């Protein structure tokens, strides 16, 4: 069998069908230089999102009423010990408890999670309309936002317990992928207390420029919270 | 059994066989997280020296989890070859290491059939990285479905064309790209974003029609949903050549995956039903250090031993492919490139000594302190170790699972570097399609558009 000696290299158009990095050519058996550098730049953004801490004045600029830390001392310990990232450190417990004085229907939490870049880019836009919607829903009984450094999603339980909150909304940076390092999730739970798991929570994920738009996310989160107050529950069995 | 020793004037004492095992391990974040790891480098070496004097038979007498409360243990014990068990039981673990390094591959594989998973996990931790590579390179395990993988001189790959919403045209675009690099001789295997029966069946059939009916590629198709979902899809008329399931090293771990021993046997029967075109092997298992700790089903046992028990369970089903997904789990189990490389070499060696057709998903997430250079290092080491297959992901970036694995380019580069070919049936197809000539990629290779053009005779 003889093969076409001069194949016409058609622009396949296949790369429009998937976000996967296909039809990128090759240099021998290795990637083209520009593709290799682009790939490593995406990874660099993801690593920086994981390792960079938000600046000290970030909570103030965001208008947070409190800024606390978990038991994780730094990013390395945060990555190695998920259990420590689920507990507010002893010295900060009182500050969270104080937020709940006089009743707390909704506690709004901002957590860095695995991507400070997601929090820095999405939360300043998402937070103002969300706070307004929640305040309309539960006038005078929305607390926060409280900022938590080096926090895992499971910190919701400790925070909910300390503030005796009925609903906790946690905006948290997702583990960065290569396509975006700026994707945010909103976790919501009815009566989150120690022992609650993902099964007790609901989540809106993929909040970023190419995913769920931030403005729309504020509306969706408020709708879920309203549903939780209506049905007095949350979790995998529940849909708003 | 001696559990106490003095090393350079310092006393070290251990609480029992599995305390000794855990502390003898190379450093791993998951063992530290579980509170099982050695506290100092010297304690680790003291444990390793004592472990080298433990007899193989000690692990027969004392499995990591009692057989009476764990069907993984009972399956491991009941599958041992009695003659091979007799042959090895009096050796110490230190002697076992030397015997394996001295022996030819067939002899070592025969001994492997008589070793419990715990004994295999013990000898692995006495081995250096080069020990693991050299020993593994002798252990050839070939399996057959539509293609035969694991033959000497070959290096195979699973094409992993995942799409964030399982869009069939998008999946097939990645399939075209991978095939054009000669990737996919072990499997075209899709991780579904939507785990419903309808969606899984749609992907199974869409990919099978393209790969088998349209392009006549000699390979296997599989959609990596839960085994129960795949069985339902098969009942409804779904097409696949291989059934997949993640497995764990304890009964409790497998229960958290929602599987029982009979489900895996049923899967084996279901995929064969009415088929005459399949070889002897139809199951695909995935494992990976740390999964038992993450589901709190590790029974206080270190992650290397639990991983080896996964292999013991897999062995009792004679699978077509076993894949250790080495760096997906996260930095709290494997922190950095060094730990990932070590775990990949250990898992591959342990699987091969169990007689398994071992592949490795050489991978990391972005939370881990690792990068593409770490993955390429491990890939080359595994190539030298005779690993059966690795993943092929477009430019390493899995856009559905959000992690990085090895790429189509990496598979082609490793074959060029080590002079390896794809599985023979697939190699023939590549030559017919004009992608490969005399073991080298042609000018057309790497162009996903070639499958739209007719072959010119």
Mean of residue pLDDT values of chain B: 96
The strand line-up of the biggest sheet of chain A is 1-3-2-4-5-6
In the CATH scheme, the class of chain A would be Alpha Beta
The radius of gyration over CA of chain A amounts to: 22 Å
Instruction: Characterize the overall form of chain A.
Output: globular
* Class based on secondary structure composition and strand pairing of chain A: alpha/beta
CATH architectural grouping of the largest domain in chain B: Alpha-Beta Barrel
Structure report:
The complex is a heterodimer of chains A (240) and B (457). With 240 residues, chain A is α/β, with parallel strands linked by helices. Helices cover 37% and strands 16% of the residues of chain A. In chain A, helix 5 links the parallel strand 2 (106-111) and strand 3. The model of chain B has no long low-confidence stretch (mean pLDDT 96). In chain B, helix 12 (197-214) packs across helix 13. In chain B, 60% of the residues are buried. Chain B folds into 2 domains: 4-138, Annexin V, domain 1; 143-450, Aldolase class I (TIM Barrel, Alpha-Beta Barrel).
Short description:
The complex is a heterodimer of chains A (240) and B (457). In chain A, 37% of the residues lie in helices and 16% in strands. Chain A is of the alpha/beta class and 240 residues long.
Secondary-structure blueprint of this entry?
The complex is a heterodimer of chains A (240) and B (457).
Chain A: H1 33-51, H2 58-62, E1 66-69, H3 75-80, H4 90-99, E2 106-111, H5 116-137, E3 142-149, H6 155-163, E4 167-173, E5 184-190, E6 201-207, H7 214-231
Parallel strand pairs in A: 1-3, 2-3, 2-4
Antiparallel strand pairs in A: 4-5, 5-6
Chain B: E1 4-7, E2 10-13, H1 17-24, H2 29-33, H3 41-52, H4 56-61, H5 71-78, H6 82-88, H7 93-102, H8 105-112, H9 117-126, H10 129-138, E3 143-144, E4 148-149, E5 156-159, H11 168-180, E6 187-190, H12 197-214, E7 221-223, H13 227-235, E8 243-246, H14 251-256, H15 261-272, E9 283-287, H16 291-294, H17 303-315, E10 321-325, H18 337-353, E11 358-361, H19 372-384, E12 389-392, E13 397-398, E14 403-404, H20 408-418, H21 424-433, E15 436-437, E16 440-441
Parallel strand pairs in B: 5-6, 5-12, 6-7, 8-9, 9-10, 10-11, 11-12
Antiparallel strand pairs in B: 1-2, 3-4, 13-14, 15-16
Helix pairs in contact in B: 1-3, 5-17, 7-9, 9-17, 9-18, 10-18, 11-12, 12-13, 13-15, 17-18, 18-19
């Amino acid at each position: 069998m003889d093969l076409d000696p001069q194949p016409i290299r058609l622009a396949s158009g296949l790369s429009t069908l998937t976000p996967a990095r296909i039809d990128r050519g090759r240099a021998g058996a290795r990637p083209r230089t520009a593709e290799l550098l682009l790939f490593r730049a995406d990874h660099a953004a993801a690593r920086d999102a994981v390792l960079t801490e938000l600046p000290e004045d970030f909570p103030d600029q965001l208008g947070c009423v409190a800024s606390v830390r978990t038991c994780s001392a730094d990013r390395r310990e945060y990555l190695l010990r998920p259990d420590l990232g689920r507990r507010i450190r002893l010295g900060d417990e009182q500050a969270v408890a104080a937020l709940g004085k006089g009743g707390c229907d909704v506690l709004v939490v901002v957590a860095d999670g695995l991507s400070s870049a997601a929090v820095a880019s999405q939360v300043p836009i998402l937070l103002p309309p969300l706070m307004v919607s929640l305040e309309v829903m539960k006038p005078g009984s929305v607390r926060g936002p409280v900022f938590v450094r080096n926090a895992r999603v499971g910190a919701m339980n400790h925070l909910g317990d300390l503030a005796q909150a009925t609903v906790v909304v946690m905006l948290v940076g997702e583990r960065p992928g290569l396509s975006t390092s700026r994707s945010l999730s909103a976790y919501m739970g009815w009566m989150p207390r120690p022992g609650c798991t993902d099964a007790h929570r609901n989540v809106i994920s993929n909040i970023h420029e190419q995913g769920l738009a931030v403005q729309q996310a504020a509306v969706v989160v408020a709708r879920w919270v309203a549903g939780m107050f209506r049905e007095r529950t949350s979790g995998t069995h529940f849909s708003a | 059994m001696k559990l106490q020793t003095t090393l350079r004037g310092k006393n070290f004492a251990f609480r029992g066989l599995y305390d000794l095992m855990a502390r003898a391990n190379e450093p791993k974040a998951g063992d530290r997280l579980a509170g099982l790891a050695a506290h100092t480098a010297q304690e680790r070496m003291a444990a390793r020296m004592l472990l080298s004097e433990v007899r193989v038979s000690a692990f027969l007498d004392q499995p990591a989890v009692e057989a009476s409360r764990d069907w993984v243990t009972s399956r491991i014990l009941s599958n041992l070859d009695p003659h091979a068990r007799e042959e090895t039981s009096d050796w110490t673990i230190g002697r076992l290491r030397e015997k394996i390094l001295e022996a030819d591959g067939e002899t070592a594989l025969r001994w492997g059939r008589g070793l419990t998973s715990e004994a295999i996990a013990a000898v692995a931790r006495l081995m250096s990285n080069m020990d693991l590579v050299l020993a593994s390179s002798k252990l050839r395990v070939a399996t057959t479905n539509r293609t035969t993988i694991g033959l000497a001189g070959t290096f195979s790959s699973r094409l992993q064309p995942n799409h964030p919403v399982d869009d069939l045209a998008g999946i097939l675009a990645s399939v075209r790209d991978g095939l054009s690099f000669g990737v996919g001789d072990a499997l075209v295997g899709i991780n579904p974003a939507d785990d419903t029966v309808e969606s899984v069946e749609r992907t199974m059939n869409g990919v099978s029609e393209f790969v088998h009916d349209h392009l006549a590629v000699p390979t296997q198709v599989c959609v990596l949903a839960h085994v129960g979902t795949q069985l339902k899809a098969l009942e409804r008329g779904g097409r696949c050549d291989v059934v997949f399931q993640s497995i764990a090293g304890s009964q409790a771990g497998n229960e958290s995956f929602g599987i029982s021993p009979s489900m895996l046997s049923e899967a084996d029967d279901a995929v064969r039903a009415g088929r005459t075109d399949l070889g002897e092997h139809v199951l695909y298992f995935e494992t990976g250090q740390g999964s038992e700790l993450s589901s709190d089903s590790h029974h206080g046992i270190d992650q290397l031993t639990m991983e080896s028990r996964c292999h013991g369970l897999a062995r009792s089903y004679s699978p077509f492919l076993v894949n250790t997904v080495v760096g997906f789990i996260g930095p709290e189990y494997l922190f950095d490139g060094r730990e990932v490389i070590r775990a990949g070499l250990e898992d591959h060696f342990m699987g091969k000594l169990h007689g398994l057709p071992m592949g490795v998903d050489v991978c990391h997430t972005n939370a881990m302190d690792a990068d593409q250079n770490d993955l390429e290092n491990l890939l080359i080491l595994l190539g030298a170790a005779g690993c059966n297959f690795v993943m092929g992901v477009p430019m390493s970036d899995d856009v559905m699972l959000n992690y990085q694995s090895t790429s189509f380019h990496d598979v082609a580069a490793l074959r060029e570097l080590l002079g390896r070919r794809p599985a023979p049936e697939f190699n023939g197809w590549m030559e017919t399609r004009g992608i490969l000539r005399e073991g080298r990629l042609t000018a057309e290779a790497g162009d996903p558009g070639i499958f739209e053009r007719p072959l010119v005779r």
